[in-house]
Structure formats: structure tokens, C-alpha cells
């Protein structure tokens, strides 16, 4: 695992060193550089495989190609067998990727089983290829000095694993991208290819970019796309066994490393599956598991229900509100863009503790998206029971201060009109009240996503939306940034190429049954997991910010209300009312307050005082 950077043109070598130094936390073990008249390249290495021989950059045998690589390819040994004509200098997965590219070109990407973001420089053609993995587990950003439309040709100046590298480029002036902020208000993360910084973009998952290093002209292409191909004729018993074997295989591949490997354990079924399979693979050698709890809200007991029978070497940490809020500015700096997911900070503390004992952890991200684990996916089944109710009655019920009124409100609209993903913080009416500048429309093409699954069930449509937005924008963003903040590599066996291939075929009846989510995944581990764990509803790492935002937190509220960007773009009177309703009137506005706090801290960290 590493951090990679690059900048086109003839620059002082100090520029690439500063860009790379800004992400030293991603790779504290080593660094490497290359410079010629067209480009300067850099990397920081976190040594995981072939500790001695895997130094970067790695060059081809003829010296024409160089690779700077971030990630892990778990099937590199299998791929290497098809490259017997190449003279390898190392035992690393990085060199296998390079050799595969030389033989197959960008088609090598479809063969890779793992997570990655890498750059391959062709000195002869004066061209660099940048690529990102299937689901976007590893990040990659690029900077264009001038704006461009997604459909038009673009000119790239620099790229990096993190945006903060661009702050080291002479003349770079960070400017706020209002469109990204506007979308963030609803989504709690930025769902766009554009970032919070003007002229800085994300290379989308499952895409590669070719850049002419003499002109900066770039071309982006997609090489893979997740698609549902549900097969209703699948046999339940056979598929149950297939799920078990595929997960065993994935976990075994994800454990490949030359350093200690542990697991995050929340107590839910996903992380319990990972930890259980890891312990079975290791046998008598105890794996290390880690969980986090918060004062007044903790899942450590649930995690223990899995850890104790397995006999793992288990560690628990507990976080209080003072420590939590004190750490927010540092977490925001690591995020690059605000992600208003309170559980991310729990992950930050968890990673800090885990890094004291291991260098790699496995975690359960992606299971809910692929196997249908979020409770909200059950909503369409419940809606069937009220489909007979006339709309005028639903409208009446939706306005009553009763439990279930929100359900009646959602039932008034089609899924495509209301579902933008797992999080929807400020609704459209609230955004209109809050936002007072020019941007007035959401820029996310959810309509295009819905069109691709128009013939599937509403629950499956929700999965597809989440796989293409929520998963990469929130779940994987916090997983990468919060762990790499502590130089800890996080691996996600559920987001494996073979697992994805299997889950794409599952019919709805294998995912949701009798009010339960992830039905067949749970059945597959019936004889392996404790029953209490196997039947447990979705947990995650919940955070008690609702109770922590008290009247006494005036310093946090002032951070929001006195922020220059918020004052100029939003109605602070509306925000004051949100805070008052939360602290005095018992209305839970904690997610809205948290979102605004993270935005204010981001602006103070990256923009205020720099422009």
C-alpha cells in the first residue's frame, strides 16, 4: 500500500518531493522518485509484500516502462504464471501488474483481483496510464488548471492519491466548488466526479486515464461495470454452498501478506464472517481483532460474542465526546473532502489502535451493498401493504406527528423521485431554505443509474444506486482515509471480483425473506457463526452524536455560525433554529448539525487563510 503523485512539465524536484511528502502517512516505509523533461513522479511506500525487493518505481527489463503503484493484487501469483516470458526482478505484485500491462495493455485491468490505483509511464510514447480499481477502494485525484466538461477533452497537470498534494504546487489556489457543497448537503458526502476544490477531479472507479505527458491531453475510459444478471433458476442449497466457498476463497486471498494481519470486528454478521474465516485459516495461531465503543453507546458486547468463541486476541477501545470532538480537525485534514458520517471518527480511533499491533486489517465493507443488507431495502416490501391507500389519505397521515408518518410521506413518491442513497440529510425543501446562492439543482445523474436497472425490483434498484454512489463516496472514502491516516492497510474481502460476480446473479428471494436482509448470506454461515450474531440486524459503528450535541457545545455551534463560507452561502437564521430545536425542543437535528460542522472545519482547514 502506498501513496502516488505526479506532475507534468519541467519543475524543480522539490515540487514532487513536497507533493509526495504531503501524503507520507500513506507510506512511511520508503519513497521513490523519477524525473525527466516531461514529468516528475513520486511515491510513498507501506511495505506489505516483498518487503525488501518491492521498492518503487519498478522498471521494465528494457527500461521503457515505470510503475508507481498503490494497492494489492491478490491473484498476482496466478497471473504471473501467464507471464513466463517476462524476466522478473522482484516477487512483488507491483511488477506483475507492470508485466501484464506490457503484454496485454489496459486489458490487464480486467484480470486483476484486488484494490489499486497506479501509474505506468511509457517513456517512449511520452504517455502515462492512470487506473483505479473496480469499486473505487483506493482513491486517485487529478488536477486540471482550467475547468472542463466531463464529455470534453481535458488537460491534466498533476495527480495524487490525496488532494492535499496539490496544495504544494506553486500557484495552486484552493477554491470552493459550490456544486459539490450543494450536493453534500443532501448526500452527506460529495457524490460527484468534481471535488470540493475547483478544477480537481476524481478518477471514477473502474476507469483508466491516458495522459500525453507533453501536452497534458487526457482520455478517460471505463473498463468494467457492475451489472445485475439475476438468475431466478439458481438452486438455493447449491448457491448457499457457493457463497460459503467464495467467501472462504476471498478471505484467504485477502490475507496474503508478509506482515501481521488483523480484523475489525463490530459484532455484526459481516465482520464476524471475516474474522471467523480468518481464524479458521490461521488455525491455532490467534488472529487479532479490534472493536470500538462510545460512552453511552457500545457494541463491544456483541463483538465479544464472536471473538470469545473464536479465541481471537481481542482489543476494545472506548471513546468519549471530548476526545471525539478534539480529533475532528485532524480527521478532516485526512479526509480532503468532508464526509459527514459520524462513524468515520470511530474508525479513525480504531485504526490508530490497530496499527500498534498489525499493519493490515480486513473489514466487512461492501457486504450490505452486494448482498442487500441495509434495512431500508425492506421498505419496498412494506410499501406493498399500503399500496391500496389513496394518496389524499397518505398526504393526511404524512402530516401527523405520529410514528410512521415519514413512511407515509415516502409512499407518496416513486423510488426514483426520493431515493438518492443511504443518506439523505437535508431534503430538497430544507436545502431551498438553507442555501441562498446560485446553485439550484442537484448534479448527480441518478436518473441514468435508475435507467440501467429499470426492469428490476425497487430493492435491487436501491442496491444499484448505493453501489454506484454511497459505497464509493462514503463507505470506502472513510475506510481508506481513516486507516491510511495511521499507515494501516484496510482490505475488504466482500468487494472481491469473484464475490461480486456471484452476488450479481442472486435473485431477490435470496437476499430478502420474511423481513430479514442478506437472507442467503446468513444461511450460508448457519453452522459457523453464533446464532445471535447470524440473526443480528445491521450494526456498523453507531455514534451517539445526538446526545453529545448539548447546549454546552457552544464552541462547536459558533464554528458553524461564524464560518465565512457558511455565512456567505447559507441562512444562518435557519441554522440557529436547527441548533435550538435540537438542544431545547427535543428534535433530532444531530446529522444536520454534524454535516455543517464538518463543512466548517473543512473550509477552515483547506481554504481559510490560504486564498
Gross morphology: globular
How many H/I helical runs?
26
Strand content: 15-25%
Task: Give the termini separation.
Answer: 33 Å
Report the C-alpha radius of gyration, rounded. Answer: 24 Å
Which strands sit side by side, in order, in the main sheet? 4-5-6-7-12-13-9
- CATH architectural arrangement of the domain at 2-222: 4-Layer Sandwich
What profile does the largest beta sheet have? 7 strands, antiparallel
Number of strands: 18
| Model regions low in confidence, pLDDT < 50 over at least 5 residues | none
Q: What percent of residues adopt helix (DSSP H or I)?
A: 25-40%
Full CATH superfamily name of the domain at 2-222: Aminohydrolase, N-terminal nucleophile (Ntn) domain
Average pLDDT, rounded to a whole number, is: 91
Secondary structure category: alpha+beta
Remind me, CATH topology of the domain at 2-222? Glutamine Phosphoribosylpyrophosphate, subunit 1, domain 1
Amino acid at each position: 500500500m502506498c501513496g502516488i503523485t505526479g506532475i507534468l512539465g519541467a519543475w524543480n524536484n522539490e515540487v514532487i518531493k513536497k507533493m509526495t511528502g504531503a501524503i507520507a502517512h500513506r507510506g512511511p516505509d520508503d519513497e521513490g522518485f523519477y524525473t525527466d523533461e516531461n514529468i516528475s513522479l513520486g511515491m510513498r511506500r507501506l511495505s506489505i509484500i516483498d518487503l525488501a525487493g518491492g521498492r518503487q518505481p519498478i522498471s521494465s527489463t528494457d527500461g521503457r516502462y515505470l510503475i508507481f503503484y498503490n494497492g494489492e493484487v491478490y491473484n498476482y501469483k496466478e497471473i504471473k504464471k501467464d507471464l513466463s516470458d517476462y524476466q522478473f526482478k522482484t516477487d512483488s505484485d507491483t511488477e506483475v501488474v507492470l508485466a501484464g500491462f506490457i503484454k496485454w495493455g489496459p486489458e490487464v485491468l480486467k484480470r486483476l483481483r484486488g484494490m489499486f490505483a497506479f501509474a505506468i509511464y511509457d517513456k517512449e510514447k511520452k504517455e502515462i496510464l492512470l487506473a483505479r480499481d473496480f469499486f473505487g477502494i483506493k482513491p486517485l485525484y487529478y488536477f486540471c488548471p482550467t475547468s472542463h466538461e466531463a464529455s470534453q477533452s481535458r488537460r491534466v497537470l498533476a495527480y495524487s492519491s490525496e488532494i492535499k498534494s496539490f496544495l504544494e504546487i506553486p500557484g495552486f489556489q484552493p477554491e470552493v466548488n459550490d456544486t459539490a457543497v450543494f450536493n453534500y448537503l443532501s448526500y452527506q458526502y460529495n457524490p460527484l466526479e468534481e471535488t470540493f476544490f475547483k478544477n480537481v477531479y476524481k478518477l471514477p472507479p473502474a476507469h483508466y486515464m491516458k495522459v500525453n505527458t507533453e501536452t497534458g491531453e487526457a482520455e478517460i475510459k471505463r473498463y468494467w461495470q457492475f451489472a445485475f444478471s439475476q438468475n431466478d433458476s439458481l438452486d438455493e442449497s447449491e448457491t448457499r454452498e457457493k457463497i460459503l466457498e467464495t467467501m472462504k476463497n476471498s478471505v484467504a486471498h485477502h490475507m496474503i501478506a508478509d506482515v501481521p494481519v488483523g480484523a475489525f470486528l463490530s459484532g455484526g454478521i459481516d465482520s464476524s464472517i471475516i474474522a471467523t474465516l480468518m481464524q479458521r485459516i490461521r488455525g491455532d495461531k490467534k488472529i487479532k481483532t479490534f472493536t470500538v465503543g462510545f460512552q453511552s453507546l457500545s457494541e463491544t458486547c456483541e463483538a465479544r460474542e464472536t471473538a470469545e468463541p473464536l479465541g481471537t486476541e481481542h482489543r476494545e477501545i472506548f471513546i468519549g465526546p471530548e476526545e471525539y470532538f478534539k480529533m475532528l480537525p485532524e480527521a478532516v485534514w485526512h479526509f480532503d473532502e468532508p464526509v459527514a458520517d459520524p462513524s468515520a471518527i470511530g474508525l479513525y480511533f480504531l485504526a490508530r489502535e490497530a496499527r500498534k499491533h498489525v499493519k493490515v486489517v480486513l473489514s466487512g465493507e461492501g457486504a450490505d451493498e452486494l448482498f442487500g443488507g441495509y434495512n431500508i431495502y425492506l421498505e419496498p416490501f412494506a410499501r406493498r401493504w399500503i399500496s391500496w391507500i389513496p394518496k389524499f389519505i397518505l398526504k393526511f397521515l404524512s402530516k401527523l406527528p405520529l410514528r410512521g408518518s415519514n413512511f407515509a410521506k415516502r409512499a407518496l413518491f416513486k423510488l426514483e423521485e426520493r431515493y438518492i442513497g443511504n443518506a439523505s440529510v437535508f431534503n430538497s425543501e430544507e436545502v431551498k431554505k438553507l442555501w441562498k446562492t446560485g446553485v439550484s439543482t442537484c448534479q448527480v445523474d441518478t436518473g441514468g443509474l435508475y435507467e440501467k436497472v429499470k426492469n428490476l425490483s425497487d430493492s435491487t434498484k436501491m442496491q444499484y444506486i448505493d453501489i454506484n454512489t454511497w459505497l464509493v463516496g462514503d463507505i470506502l472514502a472513510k475506510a481508506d482515509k481513516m486507516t491510511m491516516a495511521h499507515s494501516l492497510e484496510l482490505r475488504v474481502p466482500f468487494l472481491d471480483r469473484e464475490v461480486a460476480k456471484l452476488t450479481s446473479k442472486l435473485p431477490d428471494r435470496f437476499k430478502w425473506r420474511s423481513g430479514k436482509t442478506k437472507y442467503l448470506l446468513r444461511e450460508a454461515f448457519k453452522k459457523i457463526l453464533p446464532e445471535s450474531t447470524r440473526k443480528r440486524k445491521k450494526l456498523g459503528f453507531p455514534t451517539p452524536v445526538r446526545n453529545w450535541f448539548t447546549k454546552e457545545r457552544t464552541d462547536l455551534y459558533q464554528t458553524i455560525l461564524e464560518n465565512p463560507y457558511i455565512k456567505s452561502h447559507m441562512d444562518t437564521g435557519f441554522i440557529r433554529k436547527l441548533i435550538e430545536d435540537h438542544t431545547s425542543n427535543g428534535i433530532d437535528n444531530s446529522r444536520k448539525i454534524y454535516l455543517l460542522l464538518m463543512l466548517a472545519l473543512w473550509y477552515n482547514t483547506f481554504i481559510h487563510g490560504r486564498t
